[in-house]
Design brief:
Layout: H1 6-14, E1 25-30, E2 60-65, E3 77-79, H2 83-94, H3 97-101, E4 114-115, E5 123-127, E6 132-134, E7 143-150, H4 155-164, H5 171-179
Length: about 180
C-alpha cells in the first residue's frame, strides 16, 4: 500500500518545496449539547489579523478528525461548496479590503451547506476561501478535530492576488486544469 504524508499530499497542490510547515495547530472541540445552526459563514484570519494588520490569510486548511462524526449534528464542520470560487470573484469585483470590512463574512450568495461527516483519522483539505462554520452538537459525544493552516512559502507576498484568483497558490491544480483545457 502506498503511504504518503499529509504534508506531501498538500504539497502536491501547491508545488514541491513550496509549502511552509504550520506555525500553530488548533484543537477544535464541540461539547454537547450545543443546538447551534449556522446561518452565516466565515473565512479565517480576520478576527485575529497579522501583526502588520493584514488579514491572516493562508493557502490550505488541513483538518483531521479525532473522533467519529458519522452523521450530521455531531458538532460537524459546515461548508458551503464552491464558495472558494464565489469569494474570489467577489474580491475581484469588490476589492480585497472588503474581506476585513465584512468581518470575514462577505455578503455572497451561499448554496446549501453540507456537514462534513467521517471517521476518526479522516482528512479534510479545504481551500482558504471555502466558506465554513461550526455546527451544533446534538449528540452525546464531544466532537474533536485538529486543524492546521498551511501557507505557500511566498503567500504573504501575494495574498492579495490569492484572494482574487482561487488557484494563484496552487501550481499543481493550475497545471492539472491547463492539461485538461479547463483554464484557470
Amino acid at each position: 500500500m502506498l503511504q504518503t504524508s499529509v504534508f506531501t499530499l498538500a504539497e502536491s497542490f501547491v508545488g514541491k518545496g513550496k509549502l511552509l510547515a504550520p506555525e500553530q495547530v488548533q484543537l477544535a472541540l464541540n461539547i454537547p449539547y450545543f443546538p447551534h445552526r449556522p446561518s452565516r459563514h466565515h473565512l479565517d484570519g480576520v478576527s485575529i489579523p497579522e501583526a502588520d494588520g493584514r488579514p491572516g490569510t493562508f493557502t490550505l486548511l488541513v483538518g483531521i478528525l479525532i473522533t467519529d462524526q458519522p452523521r450530521p449534528d455531531m458538532g460537524n464542520l459546515w461548508v458551503w461548496p464552491g464558495t472558494h470560487l464565489t469569494h474570489a470573484n467577489f474580491f475581484r469585483h469588490q476589492g480585497i479590503e472588503s474581506l476585513m470590512a465584512s468581518g470575514g463574512s462577505p455578503d455572497i450568495w451561499l448554496p446549501d451547506p453540507i456537514q462534513i461527516v467521517g471517521q476518526a483519522g479522516d482528512l479534510l483539505l479545504a481551500h482558504y476561501l471555502l466558506a465554513h462554520n461550526i455546527g451544533g452538537n446534538r449528540s452525546d459525544k464531544i466532537r474533536r478535530a485538529v486543524y492546521f493552516r498551511l501557507q505557500r512559502s511566498d503567500h504573504r507576498d501575494h495574498w492579495q492576488q490569492a484572494l482574487q484568483d482561487p488557484w494563484y497558490d496552487f501550481d499543481g491544480i493550475r497545471a492539472y486544469l491547463q492539461s485538461k483545457n479547463l483554464g484557470t
